[in-house]
Hints:
single chain; mainly alpha; 8 helices
Amino acid sequence: MDSIWHIIVTATPQIALAGLKYTIPIALISFALGLILAVLTALVKLSPRHGWFSILKAIAYFYVWLFRSTPLLVQLFIVYFGLPYLKIRGLFPNGIQMDPWAAGIMTFSLNTGAYCAETIRASILSIPQGQWEAAASIGMNKTQVLKRIILPQAARVSLPPLSNSFIGLVKDTSLAASITIIEMFEVSQQIAAQNYQPLVMYSLVAALYAILCSLLSWLQGYLEKRTSSYIRPAN
């Protein structure tokens, strides 16, 4: 028992440090980039424009379908291990090669963007059409209506599912170990290979993920309460 406690005490700082250096930064950067991509994709899919814009809409639909229909682990392997074999004469004669950090962020961002795009699209559609018409009646154009009225409300509506997506992304960063990123799970694997205590190490990293996600869930609840404070409950 003393040896197990010693392992926990010595391993916890190492795993936590990996979380601060890799897990959290990867999740934050990927989610920020994915959110930008999600907003753009949602707006393209909702646009009533036709003609050449239909090509952009087709690309947006294909992008969302592709990343929602394939496993994240497979996407990581394609980007990191597969793209180096995609040789294009004149552009990428040696294939598309990326370091693990760039490949991980790129894949997580694209995957997050595909899922969050549908969340944002549904949130925008949930705003009553009458608000568009009321804003147009006072002389606001579509861009002004979207920026000043629709998106702020859609942001509040989409906060819970987007927060869930971020929490899911934090857990999914454990897959980055498969492309040699030394995040929390990878560190626990390395330590387990040294002390031959896989059950202890994997339980420890699971507990640290649970603590981190619990803190994020608390933050989600706090943000929901703050953003909904002006809404009066129905009698």
